[in-house]
Amino acid sequence: MKRFKINEKETGEAAEMEPMSDEVFDKELQSLMEEEKKGKKKKKRLHKKWSKKRKIITIGAAAIGVFFVAFKVMAGGGSMAVPVTVSPLAKGEVVEMLSVSGPVQGTDSVEVVSNLHAEILELPVKEGDRVEKGQILAVLDDKDAKKEVDIAQNAYDLALSTYQDKQLEAENGYAKAKQDYETAKANYDRTLALFQGGSASQVELETASNAMNDAQREMSSYTLKDGRPVANESYSLQIEKEAFELEQKKEALNNTKVTSPIAGTVVRVNCKVGRFADKTDDDKPMFIINNLDVLEMKINVSEYSIGKVAIGQPVEISADILNGETARGEVTAISPTGEEKGNGSTERVIPTTIRIIDQNTSLIAGITAKAKIELQKAEDVWVVPISAVIQQPDGSTAIACVKDKTVTFIPVKTGVESDIQAEIIPDEEGALTEGMQVIDAPSSMLTEGMEVTVASPVQ
């Protein structure tokens, strides 16, 4: 059987057919197959949705093989099996991951500010210092604050003294009014008895009655609380007002010692000795304190993926600072509401928190890290490359296997998927066996029963 090699001329003349031996022909075929495979290895695999993964994959190597087969048949009337690459079927593990990036930060962060217009006298801490709750971060000039406390104290003392005076007046006045009423009532009762006996006139009785009523009105003008007279409410309100002002001034005096509200690490100092506490660099807080004992990540998960994310899922965390190593994490919180993604996108995102479990790493707060959330995991299942699963004309999915040098299709369903692998479940029990030859990337030109040859994998 004669075979020919097509030689194209640079002059634009018609190509010539150069005779080829079987050995040369087979070498040309193998060379093209290897070049095609090497080219594929260099391509970066792109993450696609399952609908895209199911598209029929046409492999260039298979097309080249078919071209050579057709050429050999046309050239000599013979036939040749289509070359395919296969992998032995085996059980393994498939993990579906969701990759999201976000900042690393402490689990607790506070901004320390001061509204006192007071000069900073001392700064006993610097960035990177570990501080305890209540530890002094800055000392401010307290001269003005002390004067304000003295003024407020005097105002309070005056209000209290006034109240006490008015209270004493109320008690004495009420006691006199009560005594006057009792005397007037006794006089009225005596005059009434005389009037009834004909010994007192009507005018005398009315005079005694008016005196008693006047005394009763005077006694009723006093406010009683639990049966005791009290000063006018305005005096007690004034005491409350002055007491509040005094507490405010005392608090301001206490605040001349700026302290840390939490235990943590000083990550930012935006103030300097000699400047005023309420006039910091770019109006930033005086200090930022982070609890770096436990780090976490704040990420935004797409509304299209959040349905698969759950609290407690394990997370693998990577960052440039880890130099190729990873840290373990866990999903600890998922916001009950979504928010705009931004940049004009209509997509919504859901804030999610990841607690970093491995704390003895080189991770630091303030950097960006990549989190891979383990959404689903299948163990001890049949696993094939994503490209091995094809969609048939009727919409079902299958894998193509080589049995007795011919193609056979086995209907399967898919389970958990990663970026490169998929769990497969046969429609018929027992249809899959360990070690069976699964075609890595079946061409659409393959048909049931077609003769194929297994090509050697490229090293």
TrEMBL record:
- Domain YknX-like beta-barrel, which positions? 297-373
> What are the UniProt keywords, alphabetically?
Coiled coil, Membrane, Transmembrane, Transmembrane helix
The protein's matches in Pfam families, at most eight in alphabetical order, are given as:
Beta-barrel_YknX, BSH_RND
Q: Where in the cell is it found?
A: Cell envelope
Main location group? other
| Top-level lineage group | Bacteria
> Which Gene3D superfamilies does the record match to this protein?
2.40.30.170, 2.40.420.20, 2.40.50.100, Helix hairpin bin (1.10.287.470)
GO CC annotations?
A: cell envelope
Q: What is this protein called?
A: Efflux transporter, RND family, MFP subunit
